[in-house]
Design a protein that fits this description.
Helices cover about 60% and strands about 10% of the residues. Strands 1, 2, 3, 8, 9 and 10 form a 6-stranded antiparallel β-sheet that branches. It has a 4-stranded antiparallel β-sheet with strand order 5-6-4-7, with helices on both faces. A two-stranded parallel ribbon has the order 11-12. The chain has about 625 residues and is an alpha+beta fold.
Length: about 625
């Protein structure tokens, strides 16, 4: 990362910021505390302040509107500048059109529901009205009651009999969906009192829309059926009109939002710039590879009036430099493993390459099955081919592919494919049988752990030397040698190495402990002991591997224990459970070993994210 200053005539500052934003490689930095004589921060004018408020208001209105729109496609309709009153007026008009179409659709949906219900109630009332014609000087009411209000029907009949002196008639029938259709016939002279009673008791009187209210029930039912058949087309037309408007709006709203964000970013960037009576200066950071192209582009765009200069870092500025991880294309997906920790400090070790080696290796050692490894690789390739999860999913698929490859390799070494089914394919253990050679598997896991920790301590010592922390570098180197000497002593005691090496190795370990204590004090002894204990954490590599192998054995024994299709089905289910657990548990355990045991030895967090001034 390079430290830059962009200089030019003061009048060109807005154009220079627009140029830098278009280049998208310069991350602005705070002005230096001690500037040149006559250099001051660019003041915020009242016009810029008002423009900033207008842009923020525009973004606040655009965000909820964009959330309702489909992905932008096609050509954008030109909208006024987002910072102008004309833009707010145009947005008011567009929102009014959209609101009108949505209200139209909502009204049609509500009408369809109402028409369906009225038709259902009328279909129940028509037979009642046919069986009970309304006499002259009488009034008929169609009512709807919830079935659970059955007591209300008896109360209604009693009250109607009281009001009409026994001259009323109440008949009810089931209308479906928990409702009763009620036909009420009363003398016309008592219709007003009966309607008041219905209102007081909360009994719904059926009201047909518009001219249908004057029709006989049978004819009204026919008219409702015709309207019900016409409503889906009307609703579809309203939805098409709304979707067409949304499709037209999507590119325009997206373009307006990008323009508003870009303009607001330039206004905020101006506050980080400096000026004199005649010139401006912009301070920033850019990837070193981009400095020469940026300088050439600035010279061409401003005819040499604006220059881009690179300056060396001042002492102590390393912590201010933004960090962008730069790894080869095949290695970049493993940067996902660092998502749970802050970025590394600028100039410190990027552990991506080491994690790309050890994480899949540990995963494969735990899963250790050719069949499961091939299945994981197949799923990863399918995810990349189908584009599941977008760019993030494709990067994760690379990590899964590497994990599956290591699992398949260890499956070959252990002679396993879905457990002992690999024997039917001619597989035999090339390294060890982890179902029986438990101590050998434990030793293999601890050896990998020892190598993992040794790499971490070596990186820590190298980082301390780079940072000129010599005592810390000495202590970490001593801990590294202590770890190696303790491993040699343990191997000699177990008979894996000549026993005559045990005493010299123990003496070397004691000297290393003393050197660590001399470099960093008594606490270094505790750190050294903890480093030895950390090796035992890698026993989980053996434990999870054995658990997976044993569960595969249980699954393979199901067809014999339960003959028939049931045993086969149970075996497949157990293998599916084993694959799921064998994917999740090793993934978490391997990640824990990287973040807790490995990075703790050397990782220097505190890097600032690289956020260049850019469009979009």
């Amino acid at each position: 990362m390079a430290k830059l200053e962009v200089l030019g005539p003061r009048r060109l500052l807005p154009e220079a910021l627009r140029f830098l934003q278009g280049q998208g490689v310069v991350a602005l930095r705070e002005p230096p505390s001690a500037g040149a004589p006559g250099l001051r921060s660019v003041p915020v004018s009242p016009g810029d302040s008002a423009l900033g408020e207008a842009l923020r208001a525009a973004l606040a209105r655009l965000a909820p509107l964009r959330a309702r729109l489909p992905p932008p496609a096609g050509r954008a309709q030109a909208l006024p500048d987002p910072g102008t009153p004309a833009f707010q007026a145009a947005l008011d008009e567009l929102e009014a059109q959209l609101r009108e179409l949505e209200e139209r659709r909502a009204a049609l949906l509500a009408e369809r529901q109402s028409v369906r219900r009225l038709a259902r109630l009328l279909r129940a009332l028509v037979p009642l009205s046919a069986e009970t014609p309304t006499p002259p000087r009488a009034r008929a009411f169609g009512l709807a009651l919830r079935r659970e209000r059955g007591d209300a029907l008896a109360l209604l009949a009693s009250e109607v009999a009281r009001l009409t002196a026994g001259g009323g008639l109440v008949r009810a029938t089931d209308a479906g969906e928990g409702e009763l259709a009620v036909l009420l016939i009363v003398p016309s002279s008592r219709a007003r009192e009966v309607r008041a009673l219905l209102f007081e008791q909360g009994v719904e009187e059926l009201q047909l829309p518009g001219a249908l209210d004057a029709l006989a029930p049978a004819r009204a039912l026919v008219a409702l059926a015709e309207r019900e058949r016409a409503l889906p087309g009307a609703i579809a037309a309203a939805e098409r009109a709304r979707d067409e408007l949304l499709a037209r709006l999507a590119p325009s709203v997206a373009a307006a939002e990008r323009a508003a964000r870009a303009a607001l970013a330039r206004l905020e960037a101006a506050a980080c710039c400096g000026e004199t009576g005649h010139a401006f200066v912009v301070w920033g950071w850019a990837p070193r590879a981009q400095v020469a192209p940026l300088s050439a582009a600035a010279a061409a765009a401003f005819a040499g009036a604006v220059s881009v200069s690179e300056f060396p870092l001042a002492p102590g500025e390393e912590r201010e430099v933004p960090v962008v991880l730069s790894n080869p294309r095949w290695l970049a997906p493993f940067e996902l493993l660092l998502a749970l920790v802050p970025l590394p400090r600028y100039g410190s070790v990027d552990p991506t390459a080491w994690m790309a080696l050890f994480y899949p290796l540990f995963f494969g050692l735990m899963l250790g099955d050719l069949g499961f490894g091939a299945l994981a690789m197949g799923l990863a390739l399918a995810a990349r081919w189908r584009g599941w999860g977008g760019p993030l999913g494709r990067r994760a698929a690379v990590v899964v592919l590497a994990c599956g490859a290591w699992a398949a390799l260890f499956g070959l070494l252990f002679g396993e494919a879905f457990g002992a089914l690999g024997e039917a394919l001619g597989l035999h253990p090339l390294l060890l049988d982890r179902r029986t050679a438990l101590l050998a598997l434990l030793g293999l896991a601890l050896a990998f752990g020892l190598g993992h920790l040794a790499v971490g301590l070596a990186l820590g010592a190298w980082q301390a030397l780079r940072d000129r922390h010599r005592r810390e570098a000495l202590a970490r180197a001593a801990r590294l040698l202590l770890l190696g000497a303790a491993a040699v002593a343990a191997a000699a005691a177990l008979g894996l190495l000549p026993r005559r090496l045990a005493a010299p190795a123990a003496g070397c370990a004691a000297l290393c402990a003393a050197a660590a204590a001399a470099a960093e004090g008594p606490m270094a002894l505790l750190e050294a002991v903890l480093s030895l204990g950390n090796v035992l954490s890698y026993a989980r590599l053996m434990a999870l591997g054995v658990a997976s192998a044993m569960l595969a054995e249980v699954a393979n024994g199901m067809p014999a224990a339960l003959p028939g299709a049931g045993g086969v089905a149970l075996a497949l289910a157990l293998h599916a459970v084993n694959f799921t657990m064998g994917a999740i548990s090793p993934a978490i355990a391997a990640l824990r070993l990287q973040l807790v045991e490995f990075l703790d030895k050397f990782y220097c967090e505190g890097g600032r994210p690289y956020r260049p001034l850019a469009l979009g």
